[in-house]
Specification:
heterodimer; A: mainly beta; six-stranded mixed sheet; about 0% helix; B: mainly beta; seven-stranded mixed sheet; four-stranded antiparallel sheet; 11 strands
Chain lengths: ~110, ~110
């Protein structure tokens, strides 16, 4: 079983709608969870981090964490064509100074 | 601040040639990382250095060596390049903390013929 799993997509969402991206992880004791955005040909850019259960909002982005279900999600409200990118979920490994990344979900926002 | 910088941006090698990829960060981070990214494979950790003076293997270390030259710089060496090492290589850095937020450099696109 992969440590961090994401649906690879592509996920297609109309402009102005809510895009919902999901990620599950296998390490029950993980403490840190991240969402990175990666445009084609560019490097990953950190857009959200979350460390405790519940929701964390930053502008149009909301990260949601449920440690009991080992599930983390990213909601993008009022989706814009500029949100079209691959979104990578990353989970911190307890006791080790490293992250494990999912394969990424490719998101396309249709005007 | 430049953040994380990598050189070169692009490189073409022939099988068997060697090269070193350079990475530097100006954020005073303790930890540095080398990843490779292949289509459909996501980001895979090659080697990392949790702090100056230490290095550890990641998920795919075979065929690579690293040097943590000082707190700012972390290099990745391919001693005898193989076509399977054709990939995009990213360097990242983070503070030494339980949360490990990592920040990435722009990447090096390497082709081995």
């Amino acid at each position: 079983q992969k440590e961090v799993e994401q649906n690879s997509g592509p996920l297609s969402v109309p402009e102005g709608a809510i895009a919902s991206l999901n990620c599950t992880y296998s390490d029950r004791v993980s403490q840190s969870f991240f969402w990175y955005r990666q445009y084609s040909g560019k490097s990953p850019e950190l857009i959200m981090s979350i460390y405790s259960n519940g929701d964390k909002e930053d502008g149009r982005f909301t990260a949601q964490l449920n440690k009991a279900s080992q599930y983390v999600s990213l909601l993008i409200r009022d989706s814009q064509p500029s949100d079209s990118a691959t979104y990578l979920c990353a989970v911190g490994i307890q006791g080790a100074q490293k992250l494990v990344f999912g394969q990424g979900t490719r998101l396309t926002i249709n005007p | 601040n430049a953040g994380v910088t990598q050189t070169p941006k692009f490189q073409v090698l022939k099988t068997g040639q060697s090269m070193t990829l350079q990475c530097a960060q100006d954020m005073n981070h303790n930890s540095m990382y080398w990843y490779r990214q292949d289509p459909g494979m996501g980001l895979r950790l090659i080697y990392y250095s949790a702090s100056e003076g230490t290095t550890d293997k990641g998920e795919v270390p075979n065929g690579y060596n690293v040097s943590r030259l000082n707190k700012r710089e972390f290099s990745l060496r391919l001693e005898s390049a193989a076509p399977s090492q054709t990939s995009v290589y990213f360097c990242a850095s983070s503070e030494l903390s339980a949360y490990n937020e990592q920040f990435f450099g722009p990447g090096t696109r390497l082709t081995v013929l």
